[in-house]
């Protein structure tokens, strides 16, 4: 059974409709990647799922409604961790303060042990725990943004273009960490990416979004072999 089930989701900005009847499922414990050109609506989909923008249709996480819920129920409380495009870390707060903010709805004792766990997983963050987030490198800020979302102990992690602005080497390191997070925590990840090469390597399932509509779900391995995909996204 899918952990996340989305049916006929429509969303946009004011009078601009961006998503048209988007339906798909995300399997528990999988990394699912959504590929698509600039402006296809990938970020809008993640924003609709985490309640940042209004949407119609249905989306359920473990059977609980996440779209159309009451405004008082935050995405974090419903089990969704969202790392937005541009990371969204608080530059004027320290690394540790950013991480604590990610666990705001959890009991203090759990936050303390999670903090230590993430410092062990991302030693660079441990070394820089008292530094301001604004002083971190791009790769470190992305790690911080991901660790902050994971501090909320989500069931589903939404990642918007984590490779943006990172060198190929750093992107490789980051994607290896994502795979490790999936394996160690059995984390379910919905990833939106322009870097099709690397994301199809770490993903289990893949979909292509085009002008606000989603194609069918395929295995990432299958999509890598698709000639149209190779031409459009893999530089073949
Ligand atoms: P990119 O990788 O460039 O971010 P994307 O696939 O994530 O592409 P979206 O950011 O979801 O695409 O944008 C989809 C459409 O919605 C675009 O036409 C964009 O101009 C528009 N759009 C995005 N954000 C807003 C906003 N805050 N207000 C109005 N229109 C927006």
TrEMBL record:
<comment type="similarity">
    <text>Belongs to the ABC transporter superfamily.</text>
</comment>
<dbReference type="GO" id="GO:0005524">
    <property type="term" value="F:ATP binding"/>
</dbReference>
<dbReference type="InterPro" id="IPR027417">
    <property type="entry name" value="P-loop_NTPase"/>
</dbReference>
<dbReference type="GO" id="GO:0016887">
    <property type="term" value="F:ATP hydrolysis activity"/>
</dbReference>
<keyword id="KW-0029">Amino-acid transport</keyword>
<keyword id="KW-0547">Nucleotide-binding</keyword>
<dbReference type="InterPro" id="IPR003439">
    <property type="entry name" value="ABC_transporter-like_ATP-bd"/>
</dbReference>
<dbReference type="InterPro" id="IPR017871">
    <property type="entry name" value="ABC_transporter-like_CS"/>
</dbReference>
<protein>
    <submittedName>
        <fullName>Branched-chain amino acid transport system ATP-binding protein</fullName>
    </submittedName>
</protein>
<dbReference type="InterPro" id="IPR052156">
    <property type="entry name" value="BCAA_Transport_ATP-bd_LivF"/>
</dbReference>
<dbReference type="InterPro" id="IPR003593">
    <property type="entry name" value="AAA+_ATPase"/>
</dbReference>
<feature type="domain" description="ABC transporter">
    <location>
        <begin position="4"/>
        <end position="236"/>
    </location>
</feature>
<keyword id="KW-0813">Transport</keyword>
<dbReference type="GO" id="GO:0015658">
    <property type="term" value="F:branched-chain amino acid transmembrane transporter activity"/>
</dbReference>
<dbReference type="Pfam" id="PF00005">
    <property type="entry name" value="ABC_tran"/>
</dbReference>
<dbReference type="GO" id="GO:0015807">
    <property type="term" value="P:L-amino acid transport"/>
</dbReference>
<keyword id="KW-0067">ATP-binding</keyword>
